[in-house]
Write a structure and sequence with these properties.
By secondary structure, the protein is α/β, with parallel strands linked by helices. Helices cover 44% and strands 16% of the residues. It starts with a helix and ends with a strand.
Length: 473
Amino acid sequence: AQQVKEVLEDLRGEDTRVTSLGHVQRGGSPSAFDRFLSTVLGYAAVQQLVADPASEPQMVGIKGNEIVSSNLMDNVAKTKSVASVIAERDYETAMEMRGGSFRDSFHMVRTMVRSRPHTPAPGQRTLRLAVVHGGGPAPGMNTAVRAAVRAGLDMGHTVMGVRRGFRGLARGDVEEMDWMSVSGWVGSGGAELGTSRSVATADMLAEVADQIRAHRIDGLLMVGGWAGYQSVYDMEQLAKVVPGLDVPVVCVPASINNDLPASELSIGTDTALNSIVSDVDKIKQSAVASRRTFIVEVMGHDCGYLALMSGLATGAEHVYLPEGGISLRDLETDLAELKRGFEHGKRLGLVIRSEHADEVYTTAFIKALFEREGEGLFDVRGAILGHVQQGGDPSPFDRIQATRLTWASIEHVVQQALAGDTASSMVGLQGGKVVFTPMAKFPSLVAPDVHRPRQQAWMDLLPVAEVMGGSVH
């Protein structure tokens, strides 16, 4: 660091300072992901010991979103070999040994931090690409747009931003973006381009087709949620009869609800989860002063991901999900368990309820029931966290995933446009890898009558949540 400082001062005349963060990096409250990871790894370690206590030493870890175990000594040997490869200055091999995502991230950073894009190759075809949002706002949308603009420009193409979602595209509210127009967007919350929650109608898509032709758009990137996905699917279906809609589109998942198909995680989910955990921690501190139970309602629409994961991260005793619903018997059982706990000296009760867990047994209903039937053992308070979960600057995890997914999407849509392939697709993380799924599969991947995928990998964590806390419905 000191050598870099001296070079900047001597060769560039810059006023430079060195800041060493030191042990402050070891402190602080654990993030929602760290709490989740330590919980499930501890659970997996005990399961491993119980299943085969005589086996060789194992290491449990996470690969993608899956908990795996591997031989400890083999991992130690591999770690030491990385150091020896670095000592030999074989950096490409060292990055490969760190994992494919490490190498890709290195090259992405090298591009993102440049002051201007690389010069296009002579004779290269310049495509015109556009970025649009759809659905509700999610932290990390601006990060994704920044990655799309800089990746596209660095590849030698023109990138345009669409204001206010598909409504804006239908009106021609499109502007060309340059390298510095997205400066500072990497950690900015909200959606600078604006978005729209409504699904594009057939008439609107006909106007979109006119604007695609008018602006000579060769490919489109949709960064957003359910309404955006539905609009792109309808757009692909109409492309068979409406000229101008036949351009490749890639959907990048950005929704705090984590309710989108073809991806195990959505951009914005981690930030929302951290907001929930921070608020619930404060609620718990206020409740400890008196014997009190809190019913906390979180967002998620028809998906219970935020409820389950926040329950794991905050130590909730009972979690109610839309996937399982709520019955009166569930409430009776959970109330009896809470009463037993307070009779034995418990000071705090915590219940997490997803907003669409049940249309009858609402947060207000559960609060009134528990307070009336609690027999004076504890007070009950309700807390609906609301739209604070959609705000805030994106977490480091969401910034990284937004950049990673968007970079891959730009590469994909460029390849399609150059090859004349007009099929639309959904990008996502599956098993830790970036995977593209045809948009035509959208109806078969989603559950009927609700906004969530048919298969949700996080549902495998239900047994862990029940062991750690109590009941999950």
